[in-house]
Design brief:
alpha+beta, 3 helices
Length: about 90
Amino acid sequence: MVKMNVKFETPEQLVEFSRMCQKVEADTLIEDTVHKLIVDGKSVMGMMTVTLNQRLIFVVDGSDEKEVLSTFEKYRTEDMVQKQNLG
């Protein structure tokens, strides 16, 4: 599992991000710490509920997680990337 801080400024970015998530094998989650929400990054409707212009946490879990992070680099904010081994 890998975590990265991300930020979205427009609803269009949320839709683009969700469509990008739909193309990867890994599980993709967005943690909105402002509203205490966790949404599936592959769900356009779920993504529309997250807060714009706030730091969010992008969680990627799967065999292609390193490739996924490089694909989503343009949404990255700050320098936090964490890798967790759960087993």
